[in-house]
Amino acid sequence: TLILGLESSCDETAAALVDSDRRILAHRVAGQEADHAPYGGVVPEIAARAHVVRLAPIVAGVLKDAGVTLADIDAVAATAGPGLIGGVMVGLVTGKALAHAANKPLIAVNHLEGHALSPRLADPALEFPYLLLLVSGGHCQLLLVKGVGDYRRLATTIDDAAGEAFDKTAKLLGLGYPGGPAVERVARDGNRQAVPLPRPLVGSAEPHFSFAGLKSAVARAAASGAHSVPDLAASFQQAVVDCLVDRSRIALGACPEATAFVVAGGVAANGAIRDALTGLAARFDKPFVAPPLWLCTDNGAMIAWAGAERFAAGITDDLGVAARPRWPLDPAAEAVRGAGV
Ligand code: ATP
Ligand code: MG
Ligand code: FE
């Protein structure tokens, strides 16, 4: 079974062809760093316009790379949310048009399910249920992944996402956009113990996250003029590592049924975070699974793979399906936003 996947929910325009045997026949990603860099972050209207310009050529490109035509594919999978609604609409309507033209089913993919299932594309041995730390630009959650479309959210952030914290810290340290890779690069030359910073929520019973106070503490430390940028970056990154490890430790303790500890999302590309989580999984005697770096940040292959998993489960969508700016993986958890989370 061959699936075409389209991704356009943020600032990557991407498409890929993936088959049900986990073969990635082709994938292309176009970032928009140059378009957004002058503004220090993603501008939704500019992102949507860039997707309009780039997506169709990228689709033509992956078909050419793989040496196939639309007639050879079995379904079209497109991100239908959550994300910046203008970009999501570009990808979804492109997917609908291609599905209609090829007379093939459409699969409306939740971008977060793309991240959540991407480790199974990379590792055929990864079985449900697994504990997932989903760390991306817009999300920071611990989820028990029980099956396709079947998620239990154990924790989320009460303020900023992990990637958001990296991006805001990069901005205030003058490291530019995109922030995560820049912070990681500069942190290599710094001392991670140089700057005392808080570890918000570490030690609390529920494995939720908080990063807003950490970012503010970095801002104060930077303003004091007492620290170098590499020391600030390294100390910030270490604080994030400590928070992720402590919170994941609670969740691992609560999920003995998990077959593995898995990390996904753009922040999962961070080497210090991957190393620390590897050690944590070993302490719980669980296999640790992290996708290759290119599969962590947004791409079309994860959307095609989520589409392949849904297609195998017999799930396809109507051409009238809507784009959704918000779309939780565990709607029940989202509905009981009790104590601020
Ligand atoms: P979401 O998936 O929540 O909708 P998104 O799609 O914008 O958000 P991703 O593409 O999954 O997010 O990840 C992008 C985020 O990952 C950015 O915040 C970026 O700074 C961060 N990131 C990327 N590489 C690294 C890295 N090496 N270290 C830390 N953070 C990183
Ligand atoms: Mg991006
Ligand atoms: Fe993403």
From TrEMBL:
It is an enzyme of class 2 (transferase). The keyword Metal-binding applies. One of its GO terms (biological process) is tRNA threonylcarbamoyladenosine modification. InterPro entries: ATPase_NBD, Gcp-like_dom, KAE1/TsaD, TsaD. Its main location: cytoplasm. Pfam families: TsaD (PF00814). It is found in: Cytoplasm. Residues 24-305 form the Gcp-like domain. GO terms for molecular function: iron ion binding; tRNA N(6)-L-threonylcarbamoyladenine synthase activity. Its EC number is 2.3.1.234. It comes from the Bacteria. It catalyses: L-threonylcarbamoyladenylate + adenosine(37) in tRNA = N(6)-L-threonylcarbamoyladenosine(37) in tRNA + AMP + H(+). Its cofactor is Fe(2+). Substrate binds at L134, V135, S136, G137, G138, D167, G180, E184, N270. Binds 1 Fe(2+) ion per subunit. Keywords: Acyltransferase, Cytoplasm, Iron, Metal-binding, Transferase, tRNA processing. Fe cation binds at H111, H115, D298. GO terms for cellular component: cytoplasm. Belongs to the KAE1 / TsaD family. Required for the formation of a threonylcarbamoyl group on adenosine at position 37 (t(6)A37) in tRNAs that read codons beginning with adenine. Is involved in the transfer of the threonylcarbamoyl moiety of threonylcarbamoyl-AMP (TC-AMP) to the N6 group of A37, together with TsaE and TsaB. TsaD likely plays a direct catalytic role in this reaction. This is tRNA N6-adenosine threonylcarbamoyltransferase.
